[in-house]
Amino acid sequence: MTTQRLRAEWRACFRFILSPHLKRTLRVAPPLAGRLRDWFPGLGMGRLFAWAATLWILNIFVLGPLVLEAFEASGATHRINVNDLPWLQAILWAPLVEELLFRYCLRRPLSLFWVTPSMGVVLVYGLQSWASVLLALTVALLLFISYFSAEPRAWVFRWGRRYHKVFPWVFHLVALAFAAVHLRNYVFGDVQWWVMMILVTPQWLTGLVLGWIRVQRGVGASILLHGLFNAGPLCVAWVALQYAE
């Protein structure tokens, strides 16, 4: 039964990517009301792990050979030092910052005017103390607003109907922007732009799935899946280093 449900979710995700919409088609019954339910995952760790494994398989066996060939042809180098793996940054900091930056606004479009700029600053300046304070204040304010959120006014519904019409464009532009940001993981020489974009096709695919999870399950689920997905390559690198030693 679980496998059948997972296959149904795969199909639902594929249909959503082809035709993005804001209607929640998955049955979610979190023990929270109002906007706070947006932060509750609404699915177990087993399902999250299954989705992470799906992304690992697609990125390694489908996109992996293409990315590896482009990486070797470009002469690029990766910024991550395998001898100093960024566990905290990859598993906790990056999922929280990037989900708020790119995907929180998918269901909360007005947050584009304040959450997105603040998280953009945090992303640029990294783990500096003042940027971490800004991140904590933003999350605290979002939770406060979610807890005390009132019924939206009439103008919000009118604006929302217009947003529904452009949402497919917004969804795919966000996925492309998410992929493009990960170009900063590499150091490039003289390389053509299309080769650079091939290098971040795994992030593009992952961004599409995370966007679907965010819209259907909430930002809490996309943050958890993002962190779990990032943990996979780090664990592989760590195990490889232990055997190398």
Task: Tell me about this structure.
Residues 87-231 form the CAAX prenyl protease 2/Lysostaphin resistance protein A-like domain. With 245 residues, the protein is mainly alpha-helical. It has one domain (33-244). Helix content is 70%, strand content 2%. It is built from 10 helices and 2 strands. It has a two-stranded antiparallel ribbon. α9 packs antiparallel against α10 (219-244). The model has no long low-confidence stretch (mean pLDDT 86).
Name a few traits of the molecule.
mainly alpha; two-stranded antiparallel sheet; globular; 245 residues
Q: Structurally, how many domains make up the residues? A: 1
Oligomeric state of this protein:
single chain
Q: Which outline best applies? A: globular
Approximate helicity band? 55-70%
The amount of beta strand, in percent, is: under 5%
The total count of helices amounts to 10
InterPro entries: Rce1/LyrA-like_dom
GO molecular function: endopeptidase activity
Pfam family, one: Rce1-like
Keywords: Hydrolase, Membrane, Protease, Transmembrane, Transmembrane helix
